[in-house]
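Minutes, project check-in

Agenda point 3 was the complex the collaborators sent over. CS summarized: four entities, 568 residues total, and the question is how they sit relative to each other. Sequences were read into the notes so everyone works from the same version.
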Amino acid sequence: MASQEVLQAFVQAATQGSFSAAARKLGRSQSTISAAVASLEIDLDLILFDRSSRKPTLTPAGHVMLQRAEEILAATSRLEMTASQLAQGVEPKLTVAISDTYQSDRFEAALSAFEQRYPDLELECLIAECDDLVALVQSGRAHVAFAEQQDSYPPDLVSSTVQERTEIALFVSREHPLAALASIDQDTLQQHRELRLATIVNPYESRAKGRVWSAPSYLMLLEMAQGGFGWAPLPRWLVGRFGAGTLQELNVRGWPKPLFVDALWSRLHPPGPAGSWLLSKMLE
Amino acid sequence: MASQEVLQAFVQAATQGSFSAAARKLGRSQSTISAAVASLEIDLDLILFDRSSRKPTLTPAGHVMLQRAEEILAATSRLEMTASQLAQGVEPKLTVAISDTYQSDRFEAALSAFEQRYPDLELECLIAECDDLVALVQSGRAHVAFAEQQDSYPPDLVSSTVQERTEIALFVSREHPLAALASIDQDTLQQHRELRLATIVNPYESRAKGRVWSAPSYLMLLEMAQGGFGWAPLPRWLVGRFGAGTLQELNVRGWPKPLFVDALWSRLHPPGPAGSWLLSKMLE
DNA sequence: CATGAACTATCGCCTTGATCGATGGTTATT
DNA sequence: AATAACCATCGATCAAGGCGATAGTTCATG
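CS then shared the predicted structure for the full assembly.
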């Protein structure tokens, strides 16, 4: 079986174009490299180098084997990389729960930076709203969450406001009766169906003052609004990105409202280095 | 450095859920597996298994490392696979030159079968016509070629006709004057510009009897025909697939012509097992 | 609760393979 | 012709993988 040392010797020899140079690079003696390549050639039953000239050059078969060997070395270096990260306490998998309330610009920037920093770390993104997000973090199912700001959180959660503001406004389909009105008061609004977020934890605290339909995500609400089923409070960026011009913003007193996003994590299941790093990126 | 044996022991132990079972599977003693896992844990500075219960179970970190370890083993088995193929004389890289004359159905079927049979073999496809194809095979640059049948080939080439027939017909743009005529004789045809294949080897044997534009591939000819620059003989399937209904077939005596495709290879640089296998698939 | 079956950890010993330094042969440069 | 750099080979050394035996755990069962 081709061992790591042998493969490394082969790859270095191939890329350096010289056994001696490879030996110097790897800090081994020249005879070691020579023996390694020879043993590899025997094991694979192939001639890897053409030794007729001064400097050994790869045979065509050698070129192909070089690729395969480099794949192995790359895989082992990935293994060592993630091992050292795990040994330093980095979580094996990072779970982030976000609201689709959340404006994606900063988050995407943070994610791409994260991808550079922890290329091999598994990342799980959950989508949920309000109480569901709190529950996910509390239970330890998610390490970090980004949620629409609430007045208070359970005592075991820590929150910090993200420096970024979006807006939530009221929208209806362009075909909806309300779309024609220049300005709308509360009573008029109440005469039409509201599309509202429902959480899974807290299915529906029925303080309904009118007909209400609910869905567990803003994206579903948007689709229901597009269907003309009622008016809905929606994040502006979401409508801009997925609304495709089919929605109309309503002019109602008190709207649009500014939106503040909190980062949440748990004192009991504190995020590891990767989670903390992501948090600091998001909060800077 | 994590050796293959150790990794294999780890992966087997993880998938079997038991060190002893892994030992049986790998034909090693139980102590070997135990020692291997222990040494791996020391090397990586990680606890991979939770030994508190009867059967050892992977820790979260162990799950991640299992993935990485399997990547390495997969890479080494690929290395061994291609090594054994190369050792049996399979060419390190197969170069096939085809004419875009060639109907793709059978060729695509052959390619996908090829992909099953030689998953790790590098494949290069060159596109050329007539004399260029012959030159590619003669020089050894391509191992196999599929070309429009010619009367004779250089003595060092072997040819065999592919059992498949396509048709070449004359086409013009729908806006072209010829498109309006129900039937056309040779003289009328000669009064308009011909779009003809030019090879690179044999740039243009100027027996032109009229205004002629030429291009090195049928696809370019098709585009020129779509531009309305003249009439062109084109393979039917090519027009059906890339013509997008913009071309009109001409009714001329002697057209459409049946098209025969020859497989070509060289006696001097005979194709290896992979090339021969592809040939037999194509000729069956 | 006692027993037995199956499992893991550890110890001593052996074999394999990676490594080194020394030596000699080959190739290209001066 | 001399030199410098390169590769192959040999014998010795040492670490790591392997085995078998043994002892300690864990779990199911009567």
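Noted in discussion: Chain A has three domains: 2-86, 94-159+264-281, 163-257.
Follow-up: revisit at the next meeting once the mutant set is ready.
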